[in-house]
Design brief:
Structural class: mainly alpha
Number of strands: 2
Largest sheet: 2 strands, antiparallel
Helix content: over 70%
Shape: globular
Strand content: under 5%
């Protein structure tokens, strides 16, 4: 074993030991965060791919850490994200200066990604708080650049497999943990308060996170005709399916229905009667769950409240949408500045009582929030980002013949579509539990397509030899 490999294995332990001691002694000073960043930077520089896996393992269990000067950092997600982006660009600059080229095709979404980052910073011209907007824009850019990091690091079937090994067990533990908490608070099942002592803050984040893994599992079971451990994948599917059943978010229900509908449209190729029966069995399970005492009435009441304008959450959402439109009309070109909605909007006490949002307020719609904060320019770039992804994905589905890679492509597209639909009625990208998967999938889809393309080109050559 080389020195680099030994260091990559030992360094994570040293990071946690050293940082833990410093954080305990100097938690009220910036020194703890500074040491965390230095140690994380060294860790990422020595083992960039390993740092990616550590990030995915820790993602559902990251905690918000408040540091002096009223700054917040999601630990360890955001330090790892920031250092991954920094090391990525340092290596790119060094490779460019030395004239090295790794032969990796250019990231297909590089132009819209760079344009969105640029517009995010450009919106600062209208902001009521320049420092707050620049700080938020920098943080958002780190999340966006995660797509480039994923595309760079996942270039082989081996790294793709490791990516799933790092993310699926960790996600399953978080979902099972949350299900146990929800069952223990079954009387508050439909409220955010039921999520106390769970890895998630509310049912929207929990449902969207669970739906991502549920849809990827479903796609693998439906579209992959090759030999693989179906028992294990059915287990994953059952785990995330149970977690999804425990979610009480209307936005999640709608997004999953649309995503599953997209997947059913792809069934015309490589599908068998058994797979159709499998989908029917899933529907049967849902019907059984709805027949449980009290479940059907609670779900129907939740659905009926969707069109009830007197429902408190609906009124609050409409007020936020109206505020977003007002902000857009005041600054239609570049918006009010990234993060300005939270700065300018005040909760209506008649709707929320004495409750004050735990963290920053959102417009309850990612699209309206982008429109209000980044203007028509930012909204156009945001739509461009989403459209480019969908267009690339649909082309990849038609061109990919290998059932394994095709199932992964469809699953990733379904997961991203579910988030795009949910973003109509909620804004979740500011949090790491959704921001990391969204931008990660944004870079993972073209990476999987490139892997499938290379393996297709290699196979005929091996057959000829």
């Amino acid at each position: 074993m080389s020195f680099k490999q030994q260091a990559a294995r030992i360094l994570p332990l040293l990071v946690f030991v050293v940082f833990g001691g410093i954080l305990g002694r100097y938690s009220e000073t910036p020194l703890a965060v500074l040491c965390l960043l230095v140690a994380t930077g060294a860790f990422v520089f020595i083992g960039m791919e390993l740092a990616l896996y550590v990030l995915l393992i820790c993602l559902p269990f990251s905690f918000r850490y408040i540091i002096p000067q009223l700054l917040e950092i999601q630990t360890p997600t955001e330090p790892l994200l920031g250092m991954l982006s920094a090391v990525y660009w340092i290596k790119k600059i060094v490779d460019y200066a030395l004239g090295k080229r790794k032969g990796i095709p250019t990231f297909p979404f590089l132009l819209p990604v760079c344009a969105f980052i640029f517009v995010t910073f450009l919106s600062a011209v209208n902001t009521p708080d320049l420092f707050g907007t620049l700080k938020g824009a920098f943080r958002a850019s780190i999340y966006i650049m995660f797509s480039l990091v994923i595309y760079e690091l996942v270039q082989h079937h081996r790294s793709l497999k490791r990516l799933f090994i790092a993310s699926f067990p960790s996600a399953a533990v978080a979902v099972i943990w949350t299900v146990i908490v929800l069952i223990s608070h079954i009387d508050e099942w439909q409220w955010t308060s039921a999520f106390q002592n769970s890895p998630f803050t509310n049912y929207s984040v929990y449902g969207s996170f669970t739906a991502i893994f549920f849809l990827i599992c479903l796609s693998r079971l439906l579209f992959d005709n090759q030999q693989y451990d179906r028992v294990m994948w059915i287990g994953w599917f059952a785990c995330f399916g149970l977690g999804l059943i425990m979610c009480f978010s209307r936005g999640v229900w709608l997004s999953v229905i649309v995503a599953v509908g997209f997947m059913l449209m792809q069934l015309g190729r490589g599908v068998t009667q058994k797979k159709i029966l499998f989908v029917g069995a899933v529907c049967l399970v849902l019907l059984v769950c709805l027949s449980l005492p009290g479940v059907y009435s609670a779900v129907m009441e939740r659905i009926s409240s969707t069109v009830d304008v007197n429902y408190a959450s609906n009124r609050a959402r409409l007020m936020r949408w109206g505020q977003a439109v007002t902000m857009f009309l005041e600054s239609p070109i570049l918006g009010k500045g990234y993060g300005a909605f939270a700065m300018l909007y005040e909760e209506d006490v008649s709707l929320v009582g004495s409750y004050v949002a735990q963290f920053q307020l959102g417009a309850h719609s990612e699209y309206l929030q982008v429109m209000s904060e980044l203007g028509i320019v930012g909204l156009a770039v945001w739509i461009w980002l989403n459209f480019a992804f969908l267009q690339y994905g649909f082309r990849a589905i038609k061109r990919t013949e290998d059932s394994f890679y095709r199932s992964i492509i469809i699953g990733l597209m379904a997961a991203e579509i579910s988030l795009m639909v949910h973003f109509v009625v909620n804004n979740l990208l500011n949090g790491d539990a959704i921001g990391v998967p969204f931008w990660g999938i944004y870079g993972l889809l073209p990476a999987v397509v490139q892997i499938a393309k290379r393996e297709k080109e290699i196979t005929p050559q091996e057959n000829e030899n």
